[in-house]
Automatic annotation (TrEMBL), chain A:
Alphabetical GO biological process terms: transmembrane transport
Location in the cell: Cell membrane
Keyword terms of this UniProt record: Cell membrane, Membrane, Sugar transport, Transmembrane, Transmembrane helix, Transport
Protein name in the entry: Multiple sugar transport system permease protein
Assigned GO CC terms: plasma membrane
Organism: Paenibacillus algorifonticola
Family: Belongs to the binding-protein-dependent transport system permease family.
UniProtKB/TrEMBL annotation, chain B:
A GO cellular component annotation in the UniProt record: plasma membrane
Annotated protein name in UniProt: Multiple sugar transport system permease protein
Principal location class: membrane
Keywords of the record: Cell membrane, Membrane, Sugar transport, Transmembrane, Transmembrane helix, Transport
Domain (ABC transmembrane type-1): residue spans on this chain: 89-300
Keyword hit for Mitochondrion: no
Length: 277, 317
């Protein structure tokens, strides 16, 4: 591309910085409010930064409800779902990309229609189903689907990646007497590590951030996830924004850390989905 | 790729003799490895969809036996006997109808912006994407605080600049526009997918336009947009499907209020099934959602055939 003129560059940077403010300011304001003391909360004009950092807010906010418990629940659900998705979506993607069975691509095409089916359409029968098994208000309804394919989207993503691995590798392994289990474990998984990381990250976010699933399936407070804990908090502290923002910050921070560590993987993973779509 | 594939097929045929000796053929292995999703698709998708259709014709709540009532659920929705159905449809059409096209245009523009040759490119890309990874329940809280009518920073800033303020989420006329504004904050996925597409456009096309004396606008109209049409299409379909399922924002921020102005369809569906425990009528509501999404997707696919340019047609099967 040609060198751009000075005026052009200024406009571009102004827009980029303006956009960044729009995307970053809410996060900054959340952190700022979480550290301000009650007296300064409603002050006019508002202080851009707190005079002194009120870490008490966090203590107060987290002490109000068993957030430790919620954190543990969210962790258990997210970790179990991640294991399930990584295992079952990779196995299925292997079948749809490396094993040549009759009708494979037709079956895959049919399963892909699942991408368009909203969870809301299957939510009520699923609830009835889990209720009949006496498994509502447990983590099972939130974890089990992960072990049964782990989402069509993840299979789709891994399949795209596995298809790009040269078949010569499988052929060579077959000559050496390797079966599908060994090819999957020793060839495809190690090469597909990159794609597995993307799927793992997306699964982490989907489960950690999930609001609807727990709301539909979990009823007793001791089984609440962090997201439910947050709405519980909202109910009783609605005007105490400094405490609300402290609780919200605590919930946001794990996702934020994961993003900062793995930013590149996220963005490449998302980009991958569009190009081949 | 074609000749390669047929060589491959010949190899497969040669191998078949060897393979048939094994008791467990490729079909067996294929089904075994695919069994999680095959089972999962039956248990969590096909059977539930059939059940949704069935329950839609019944009066049912958990713990009772479904009672067949024919089209009564649908009749009460369409006749307006259920006072929430039309407000929910209205709010959803308003929300989806504006947030999707505006969101697509805005994110396309932002992707073009991120595709410029500037320093700190990957930093800006990360910043634009960041809101997507924040739990929606949490960002909804944050935006409620930003837009709090009396003490929120946004109204304070508007007042300081002598601009009109708003009740934002607290007023029937401004609540949906506010939700639309909030939806722009989480456009990151769409932006990144557009960006990936823009990066794939060959530079020589732009050079050709430059040789012909074309300007920026010509590049946008004759190259960028046509070359991105399949991705614009992809993002639009996804945005519509997701838009119809917007739940967390109204559930956390407004509970559908004030006066049902932000009662988006799936929130209404959820309330009907889980709060009022009318699962039969909630199933009828789900069936309508299912049909609308299917029709919509089919229609977009149908109309897009003439509008979308695909490079290398054989890629589409």
């Amino acid at each position: 591309m040609k060198k751009q003129s000075m005026a052009n560059r200024i406009v571009i940077y102004a827009l980029l910085i303006g956009g960044s403010l729009f995307f970053l300011f809410p996060i900054f304001w959340m952190l700022r409010t979480s550290l301000i003391n009650m007296g300064d909360l409603y002050q006019i004009p508002p202080k851009l930064l707190p005079d002194d950092l009120s870490w008490d807010n966090f203590e107060q906010a987290l002490g109000a409800y068993p957030f430790g418990r919620f954190f543990l629940n969210s962790t258990v659900i997210t970790a179990s779902a991640m294991l399930g998705v990584l295992f079952s979506s990779s196995v299925c993607a292997y079948s749809f990309s490396r094993i040549h069975w009759k009708g494979r691509d037709k079956v895959f095409g049919f399963i892909l229609t699942g991408l368009m089916i909203p969870f809301f359409v299957v939510m009520i029968p699923q609830y009835v189903f889990w209720n009949a098994l006496h498994l509502t208000d447990t983590f099972v309804p939130l974890i089990a689907p992960a072990w049964f394919g782990g989402g069509v989207f993840n299979i789709f993503l891994l399949r795209q990646f596995f298809l790009s691995i040269p078949t010569e590798l499988d052929e060579a392994a077959k000559v050496d007497g390797a079966g599908h289990f060994r090819i999957y474990l020793q060839i495809i998984l190690p090469i597909g590590k990159q794609a597995m990381i993307v799927v793992g990250l997306l699964t982490f976010l989907a489960n950690w951030n999930d609001y609807l699933g727990p709301l539909a399936f979990i009823t007793s407070e001791s089984n609440y996830t962090l997201m439910q804990g947050l709405t519980l908090f909202q109910g009783s502290y609605s005007a105490q924004w400094h405490l609300m923002m402290a609780a919200t910050s605590v919930i946001v921070i794990p996702s934020l850390i994961v993003f900062l560590v793995a930013q590149r993987h996220f963005i490449e993973g998302i980009a991958m989905t569009g190009i081949k779509g | 790729m074609k000749p390669l594939a047929s060589v491959h097929e010949r190899e497969l045929k040669a191998e078949r003799g060897v393979r048939q000796k094994r008791k467990f053929g490729e079909l067996g292995f294929g089904l075994l490895f695919a069994s999680p999703v095959l089972l999962g698709y039956v248990i969590f998708v096909i059977v539930p969809i059939a059940a949704t259709f069935y329950l839609g014709f019944t009066s049912y709540s958990v713990g009772t036996v479904p009672k067949w009532i024919g089209f009564d659920n649908y009749a009460s929705l369409f006749s307006g006997a259920d006072p929430f159905f039309y407000p929910a449809v209205k709010a959803t059409v308003y929300y989806v109808g504006l947030s999707v096209p505006l969101g697509i245009i805005l994110s396309f523009f932002l992707a073009i912006l991120l595709n410029q040759q500037v320093a700190g490119k990957s930093f800006f890309r990360g910043v634009f994407y960041l809101p997507v990874i924040i739990p929606l329940a949490a960002s909804s809280m944050v935006w409620m605080w930003l837009l709090q009518p009396d003490f929120g920073i946004v109204n304070y800033a508007l007042e300081a600049l002598h601009l009109p303020t708003s009740r934002w989420l607290g007023d029937t006329t401004s609540v949906v526009p506010t939700l639309i504004l909030f939806s722009f904050w989480t456009l990151g996925n769409t932006i990144v997918i557009f960006l990936a597409g823009l990066q794939g456009i060959p530079a020589h096309l732009y050079e050709a336009i430059e040789l012909d004396g074309g300007n920026r606008l010509h590049k946008l109209i004759y190259i960028t947009i046509p070359m991105s049409s399949s991705i614009i299409f992809f993002n639009t379909v996804i945005a519509f499907i997701n838009g119809f399922q917007t739940f967390v924002q109204p559930a956390v921020m407004t509970q559908g209020g004030p006066n049902n102005a932000s009662l988006l369809y799936v929130l209404y569906l959820f309330n009907e099934g889980f709060k009022s425990s009318r699962m039969g009528s909630a199933s009828a509501i789900s069936v309508l959602l299912f049909l609308v999404i299917m029709l919509f997707t089919a229609a977009i696919f149908y109309f897009s055939k003439s509008l979308v340019y695909y490079e290398g047609k054989e890629e589409r099967r």
